[in-house]
Amino acid sequence: MSYQKISTNKPYIRVRPPGPNARKVLQKDKRYISPSYTRAYPLVAERGKGIMIEDPDGNRYMDLNAGVAVCTTGHCHPEIVRVIKEQSERLIHMIGTDFYYALQSDVAEELTKITPGRFAKKVFLANTGAEAVEAAIKLARFIQRRPRMIAYIGAFHGRTMGALALTASKATQRRHFSPMLSDVTHIPYPYCYRCVFNLTHPKCDFACLSYLEDIIFTKVAPPEDVAAVVIEPIQGEGGYVVPPDSYFQRLTKICQKYGILLIADEIQTGMGRTGKMFATEHWKVEPDIICIAKGIASGMPLSAMVSRATLQKWPAGAHANTFGGNPVCCIAALKTIELLKKSLVKNARITGEYLINRLKKLQNKFHFIGDVRGKGLMVGIEIVKDRNTRAKDPERRNKIVEHCFKKGILVLGCGENNIRFAPPLIITKNDIDIALEIFENVLKGK
Ligand code: PLP
Q1: Tens-place pLDDT, residues 91-110
Q2: Using CA atoms, how far apart are residues 117 and 114, in angstroms rounded to an integer?
Q3: For residues 217 and 370, what is the distance between their CA atoms, to the nearest angstrom?
Q4: For ligand 1, is residue 156 a contact (CB within 6 Å)?
Q5: Judgement on whether residues 70 and 84 belong to the same structural domain of the protein
Q6: Same domain, yes or no: 336 and 234
Q7: Last residue of a domain, which of 340, 370, 387?
């Protein structure tokens, strides 16, 4: 069966989704695929081009989440497709942890140049975000010879056992999987819209950091036992939460005072998403270790743990893997970085500002939008029952997300009651206008 090619950036629903062909896929999936996946709604993707996704029934959707912050250059960018094709005819695999090929060190060199911090760095390549986090945990423990970690309530760092020990986003992700890594202490994220101390920034004078120093370090986790603080520069799965200015400067000072490493999980925030190559750059932070994945290779599985070169004193065999730094993924990453540097990071900043301003205008019209926040093209809104009480409204949030899908725009939830916008970084203001016209109709219940 042939379908019309994806040609415009206008969503087009020809059959109420999931249509008959999509339903066949869903049935087979139900039969064979693990039920542990977190499917948001029954979207079946058949092809993608730019910011658009087409399903097997010919419905066309605008992808406002970029395959969850992965497809930075859009779906199937012609340059990415070209280098993947060419590389797969040259060399697909030769286990980069046992032998050598140039693309690995080429990518590593690029990553050391584009990550914050003008010091020598070294790179460990892997496949998924969780693996980059695992590498960071192991390196921090190895070099520090300290057992403890500090992480954040609401954090998402992945689902493998080490990363899961840091994750504290949803109870389902942890239920029945204990014991995990012991000695991880979770502290409140600087989520000023919902401050757990019921204080207001800046009057609070960072009570959340005083809590770390005055309570956690003195009663729970002696700082000389703490190897690292692991933080998402903007909390992703936890609700697209942006810390207030100066938070990172204060946190960095605390880390330096006690010889604790700062690990930035830039898996969702990195690779241009926030309008800078890395989100920590917004606050001029130079983390000791940075975890990168998602947007690094336009959809090819690659992740990286980049650290100060001085930290990588682990010997051969201490950490390695089979597929990390696969040549086809590396070439896709090099091309992705080139495209990001050329124009896409800048576009994320400009169109991101436009998106936030347009959403703020919607906030004036709809009482249930409690907050609009974000940086670049990492933007979230809070759906509340009442703006004064800020009571969360997850039911309305879920209905909006589902309704958007039915109308041809793909958004996702995050946190308990938030909607996130993380489109490909190629999106234009005109695309945003098209998307938000549909979004506004959804908010009106149309
Ligand atoms: N860290 C952050 C901040 C993430 O957003 C994610 C995934 O959403 C991960 C880690 C885990 O990445 P992966 O699913 O590739 O293991």
Answers
A1: 999 988 899 999 999 999 99
A2: 9
A3: 34
A4: yes
A5: no
A6: yes
A7: 340
Among 131, 157, 280, 418, which is best to mutate for testing ligand 1, by the most ligand atoms less than 8 A from CB? 157
User: For the chain, what is the largest distance between any 2 Cα atoms, rounded to a whole number of angstroms?
Assistant: 67
Cα of 437 from ligand 1 centre, angstroms: 31
* Residue with CA at minimum distance from ligand 1 atom 13: 129
213-222 tens-digit pLDDT:
999 999 999 9
Among the ranges given (7-11, 86-90, 163-167, 186-190), the one the predictor scored with the smallest mean pLDDT: 7-11
pTM value surpassing 0.90: yes
Structure tokens at 277: 């190559």
User: Distance between CA 122 and CA 311 in Å, rounded?
Assistant: 9
Supply the residue whose CA is at minimum distance from atom 7 of ligand 1. Answer: 158
Q: Whose CA is nearest to atom 12 of ligand 1?
A: 129
Q: Which of 350, 340, 442, 355 is nearest to 401 (CA)?
A: 442
Looking at this protein, which amino acid is placed at residue 32? Y
What is the C-alpha separation between 235 and 274, in angstroms, rounded?
Answer: 12
For the Cβ of 236 lying below 6 angstroms from any atom of ligand 1, the answer is yes
Instruction: Answer with the one of 340, 359, 387 that is the final residue of a domain.
Output: 340
Q: Which residue from 160, 291, 294 has its CB within 8 A of the most atoms of ligand 1, so it is best to mutate?
A: 294
